[in-house]
Amino acid sequence: xxxxxxxxxxxxxxxxxxxEDEFININFIMEDLDCSTGKAYEIxxxxxxxxxxxxxxxxxxxxxxxxxxxxxxxxxxxxxx
Length: 81
What we know:
The structure is a single chain. The chain is mainly alpha-helical. The protein has one domain (9-73). It contains 3 helices and 2 strands; from the N terminus they run E-E-H-H-H. The two termini are 15 Å apart.
């Protein structure tokens, strides 16, 4: 979990500003599933929804947390480092 807004890092690609962790998540999912950006966003939304259902709290997730829930959606479990 991010403790301050100063910890949020951005990456600019083709003039668009992305959260750095979000950019990493999208690219990882696109490469893993060989899918489009839109499909990767849908999967991230599902992972975020699963996290919210399990934890009942809202906060900005960092990359590892999103990817851990991405793996849970695909039926995989374990410790993601």
